[in-house]
Design goal:
Blueprint: H1 5-16, H2 24-39, H3 43-48, H4 52-59, H5 64-71, E1 80-86, E2 89-94, E3 98-104, E4 107-113, E5 116-117, E6 123-124, E7 127-128
Antiparallel strand pairs: 1-2, 2-3, 3-4, 4-7, 5-6
Length: 129
């Protein structure tokens, strides 16, 4: 009896745990929208994708959030290396950046961006809530 290839491939992915975690696609897309807005010089659009606390912290800077987020010199997107989701929290690791997100009622919003590991602490982020 022949088993369709798609069934075998699906079973293999499920068995090895290689499937993306639930919510990974929307979290990854939100991180990409934020980084694209910054790259394209669309500060107001980038700020709209920030968690309220992160937007408020940048709003205190000269020129407000829209100007401040563009002055940070955040690295461009890069290639996605890993997406991890823990309930309403997510981490998108790219080759050039690590972005932390939280799932709000209106969707995934950025809590931290421009993040680099900072041993012995967890991460040092340019944008943080």
């Amino acid at each position: 009896m022949r088993v369709p290839l798609i069934v075998c491939a699906t079973a293999l992915v499920a068995a090895c745990g290689c499937a993306a975690p639930a919510g990974a696609g929307p979290a990854q897309a939100a991180a990409a929208r934020f980084l694209d807005a910054v790259r394209d010089g669309q500060g107001a659009a980038a700020c709209a994708l920030l968690a309220p606390e992160a937007a408020e912290s940048l709003a205190e800077e000269e020129g407000g959030c829209a100007s401040a987020v563009l002055r940070l010199g955040l690295p461009g997107g890069g290639t996605v290396r890993q997406v991890s989701v823990w309930g309403d929290e997510a981490q998108v690791r790219l080759t050039t950046d690590t972005v932390f997100l939280h799932r709000f009622a209106r969707g995934w919003l950025v809590r931290g961006a421009g993040c680099r590991p900072d041993p012995p602490g967890p991460y040092d982020c340019e944008v943080e809530a």
